[in-house]
Amino acid sequence: MKKTTVLLAGVLLAMVLLFLYGATQNGLRVVFVDVNKITQEYPKMIELNERYKTDFQYYQNKLNELTKELESMQKAGASQAELEKKQADILARKQQYEQLLQNEYQPKMQQVIEEIANKVDKFAKAMGYDYILSKQALVYGDDAYDITEQLVKYLKSQ
Question: Which of 61, 71, 94, 151 is deepest in the core (most CB within 10 A)?
């Protein structure tokens, strides 16, 4: 019985050692990227940000017009009630415009982020990477494992 146990333990130990040797030979391929740079340089994200800025400026101009009206009312000697009503109107419009922008651009932004994630997944598989980590989440990472530029080029070529 003891011989069987010793033999079984020896076989088990040999299997564990072979497994560990194989794992170190084929080691994990772990790299990292600067997620902010990737999203900032992704063509569809750039386009989306430009459209957002244009729409934001449009609504900001509308609010500026309302503010000028308020200033004109103040100079003309409008009553406190009228001024408060105008201020409330400006605040309501501001909130309405912010909500409009959020409702329009949040789903679009999410769609672009999902598209980037899918392309990163394809890139990782094509390059044989086991993990691509975010540089922002690392305490330390050797620059030799930073593949941000390669990934940016890949995403721009897709």
Answer: 151
Q: Which amino acid is at 137?
A: A
Confidence of residue 138 (pLDDT cuts 50, 70, 90): confident
Q: What pTM does this model have?
A: 0.72
3-state percent breakdown (helix, strand, coil) of the chain, nearest 5? 80, 5, 15
Residue-wise pLDDT tens digits, 8-62: 444 343 343 334 444 444 678 999 999 999 999 999 999 999 999 999 999 999 9
Residue 33's nearest CA partner among 126, 119, 110, 120 is: 120
Distance CA 77, CA 132 (A): 63
- Condensed to tens digits (0 to 9), the pLDDT of residues 62-77 reads 999 999 999 999 999 9
State how far the Cα of 3 lies from the Cα of 71, in Å rounded to an integer.
Answer: 98
Asked if 145 contacts 30 with a C-beta cutoff of 8 angstroms, the reply is: yes
3-state SS track over 96-157? HHHHHHHHHHHHHHHHHHHHHHHHHHHHHHHHCCCEEEEHHHCCCCCHHHECHHHHHHHHHH
